[in-house]
Hints:
The structure is a single chain. This protein is mainly alpha-helical. The chain has two helices and no strands. The protein has helices at residues 5-12, 14-27. The longest helix is centred in the middle third of the chain and has 14 residues, at 14-27. The model has no long low-confidence stretch (mean pLDDT 92).
Amino acid sequence: MHKTGYSVLLSSGELKKRVDILREMLKNCVICPHQCKINRLKGEKG
């Protein structure tokens, strides 16, 4: 049976690691080219 990519990431713990990294990036947002460095987790808008 074929396993989906996300299920492999989930079972290996890699998915949680990636989510944690992304959450940190959202605290001082530099995800898009604007790199406004606002805290998206608090609902701030850039």
